[in-house]
Amino acid sequence: MPATASLTEYRKKRNFKRTPEPAPEDRAPKHKQPIFVIQEHHASKLHYDFRLEYDGVLKSWAVPREPSTDPADKRLAVQVEDHPVSYAKFSGTIPHGAYGAGRVYIWDHGTYEPAPGAAPFDVGLEAGKIEFVLHGEKLKGRFALVRMSGSRGKQNWLLIKMRDQYARRSENGKASNGKASGSFTPAKARPARPPSPPELSGAKTPPSRVEVTNPDKVWFSDDGITKGDVFKYYAGIADRLLPFLRDRPVTLERLPEGIGEGKPHFWQKHTPEHYPSWVRRVDFPTERGRPVRYVLVNDKATLLYLVNQGTLTFHPWLSRIDDADRPDFVLFDLDPAEATFGDVVNVAKAIHEVLEGEGVESVAKTSGKRGLHVLALWPGEGGYDEAREWARSLAERVAEELPDLATVEIRKAKRGRRVYIDTLQNARGHHAVPPYVVRPVAGAPVSMPLDWDELTARLRPNQFTVKTAPNRLARQKSDPMAGLLKSFRKVRKPARS
Question: Running along the chain, 497 residues long, what does each successive block of 10 average in pLDDT?
């Protein structure tokens, strides 16, 4: 069937005078390597449109839940009409009353190829099993689409991550193939709505003192920074850090032997049973219904116990357990890519101006790596979807005002030398880097809050470290985070004890 013929249904459903979606082209663009795209579609129900280029069109499936890198997560994928290849670049708002009305974002994008040894695409499509290797920013490695038996009308398939080096478990973040990795990122699960109130455990009083073991173990070999140095740093900044961890599910980034090639580096969501009973936990179900027992870092003893267990960085949710579906704040993550850090500073200032115009409190901080974060109080009543939409709209305003400096384009190849304003982390079950934590890169840098007048050309992204941060904090007359913390207290009551 010619590509234009297979797009008949796509054309019938749309009025291209009303919708910004692309009309079918007479001649589809050709790519040396076939492309894929996943579009986050905020229609009447949030879903993800998974599209594979084949034979001049995008073969398309609607996936109700965020695609997963866990082989155990089998995502329903309902095959829908073919889309034109140009649709892979579409990001925008389909107007109210039009088919598929709602906001569309590009969630991931890249190329793909048939999996080694798999049937050709057309054979697999007919037989009901398509195996392929994705080369995206979020999804990498081998996947399969498997048609469900007995489905009638719309074709129901399952999108499945195959077991390979890119597979992750969504419950505790460890690689599914059992191997520790020195560079992977955690699977970002979107758990189902938790019971209210959530089930808490670990009610005993924590000890007044926690000792460090093996304090002379070197964790940052190029800098001579030891486990004892990191433990001492966290003990000194506990009072500043704990307000951003308390009553939030936390994912732990653990490097028990320190940083370095080949050393264990893993992400821990599920709290082991052997942890002391005074370490508090909270149960949240995954999308498959099985609970994840997150740790709650509510006191100094728990913080230091976890550091002693090899935790280098703490990654909390943006919401607290008493209102898990509504974030306290939103995160604007400024990724320089090929831009200069001076450009990052200028984009952060522009975001601050927009937020000030909205009457919203915000704070900038170094990410601890290459970029900057802007944290802003979420002023709305809605949950994560509304907060992310609001953050995205502000990011788009900044990108429109500074087209040569800023972009919301998710694809690296399209960004050029512009700063990427990432708002995708504002989602339930995702986590953020809080202020003051140590990052697992050379130099032991920390994420440091800043006064807005400190954002100058002299600022360097990694200038605050385990060694230098304590002196800065001791000299500080006021805490840049104080206003945001005060606002948290106004809009949230503490979780039950």
Answer: 73 93 81 93 91 95 93 92 94 90 91 92 93 93 88 77 84 37 30 52 83 96 96 97 95 95 91 92 71 93 97 96 92 93 96 94 94 94 91 95 93 90 90 95 96 93 95 91 77 43
Q: d(Cα 39, Cα 50) in Å, to the nearest integer? A: 7
Structural domain boundaries, residue 228: 199-316
Helix segments in 13-149, DSSP class H: 121-127
Long-range contacts of 43-49 (CB under 8 A, 24+ apart): 43/94, 43/100, 43/101, 43/102, 44/101, 44/102, 46/385, 48/107, 49/80, 49/104
Task: Indicate yes or no: pTM above 0.90.
Answer: no
Strand 291-296, strand 362-366: pairing:
unpaired
Q: Are 45 and 65 in contact (CB under 8 A)?
A: no
CATH number of the domain that residue 223 is part of: 3.90.920.10
Q: What is the DSSP letter of 217?
A: -
**Where are any strands of DSSP class E within 12-128?**
35-42, 46-54, 57-63, 75-84, 92-94, 102-114
Say if residue 347 is in the same domain as residue 483: yes
Among 161, 182, 208, which residue terminates a domain? 161
Q: Would you call the peptide bond into 84 cis, given omega within 30 degrees of 0 as the criterion?
A: no
Q: Cα torsion at 217, 219, 221, 224 (round to 10°)? A: -70
Q: Do 326 and 336 meet the contact criterion of CB atoms below 8 Å apart?
A: no
Check the CA dihedral 437-181-71-110 and report its sign. Answer: positive
Give the closest residue to 371 by CA, choosing from 429, 445, 288: 445
Please report whether residue 364 resides in a domain.
yes
Residues 147 and 87 placed together within one structural domain of the fold: yes
